Amino acid sequence: MVHPLDDPVRSALSGPHAHLAQERGRILRYPPDVLRFIAIPDPATPTDWADVAALVGPDQFPVAGVVVLPPAGWQVTGVGPGLQLVTDGDHPRLPPGGLSDDDVVRLGPADLPEIVAFVARHRNGRVFLPRTLELGVYFGIRREGALVAMAGERLRPVGWTEISAVCTDPDHRRQGLAARLLRVLLSGIHGRGENAFLHVAEDNVAALGLYEQFGFRLRRPITMAAVHIPGGRDLG
């Protein structure tokens, strides 16, 4: 039996996020202003790849998992090793130090311009899309009115929620801000009877140390990459 996290995009788009799914043949995708992930069968047929091209157009899309090799003429870039980490439904652990959650606030549409700028500035130029907030709840911490840390929910495979966009301004690191955000997110996820998962680069030692404090364990190694459809532009 296939585990929901073996293909979390397909599981999400055929489950809790089905209302967001765009479909052509066996291909599922999110609306491009929500999330750029696409579910491609493995193995994929020439028809599947034709459906990807028709559904997406000349563009780039990210993949996280086992990269399905595209047809000749398509380009795979940014390939890097990653890890898929999971919790087992235990009450979220609190790292030593007795952190308070009083300054954690929920982010909404009014915060979107600041979120977009914050993510672009602190996550290697990654793009936070206009409707990404529809995927789940996002929380932040402010200092003197400015957003200095954030984290939220992204993919929603059946029985699971992905934690994503964990980010802290460099001038406010080592203050336990990410830990506060994780605690609030995990409390909500486990409180509704789901387990949490996330994807992290294999060499992100600081993040791995934090996630281990909250009881995350390795489920499987993954590959993170981007596939460029012929004729497309490099979105960076």
SSE layout and pairings?
Elements: H1 8-13, E1 22-24, E2 27-29, E3 38-39, H2 46-56, E4 60-65, E5 75-86, E6 104-106, H3 112-122, E7 138-143, E8 146-153, E9 160-168, H4 177-191, E10 195-201, H5 205-213, E11 217-228
Parallel strand pairs: 9-10
Antiparallel strand pairs: 1-2, 2-3, 4-11, 5-10, 5-11, 6-7, 7-8, 8-9
3D structure, described in words:
The protein is α+β, with helices and mostly antiparallel strands and 236 residues long. The protein is 22% helix and 30% strand. The protein has 5 helices and 11 strands; from the N terminus they run αβββαβββαβββαβαβ. An 8-stranded mixed sheet has the order 4-11-5-10-9-8-7-6. Strands 1-2-3 form a 3-stranded antiparallel sheet. β1 and β2 (27-29) form a beta hairpin. The termini are far apart. Residues 232-236 have low confidence and may be disordered.
Task: Give structural attributes.
236 residues; globular; 8-stranded mixed β-sheet; alpha+beta
Secondary-structure class? alpha+beta
Percent helix among the residues? Answer: 10-25%
List the helices and strands in order.
HEEEHEEEHEEEHEHE
Calculate the terminal CA-CA distance, rounded to whole Å: 36 Å
Strand order across the biggest sheet? Answer: 4-11-5-10-9-8-7-6
Largest sheet: number of strands, sense, barrel closure: 8 strands, mixed
Please give the radius of gyration in angstroms: 18 Å
The helix tally amounts to 5
Number of DSSP-assigned strands: 11
The average pLDDT score comes to: 88
What would the principal axes of the Cα set say about the shape?
globular
Poorly predicted residue ranges: 232-236
* Beta-strand percentage range: 25-35%
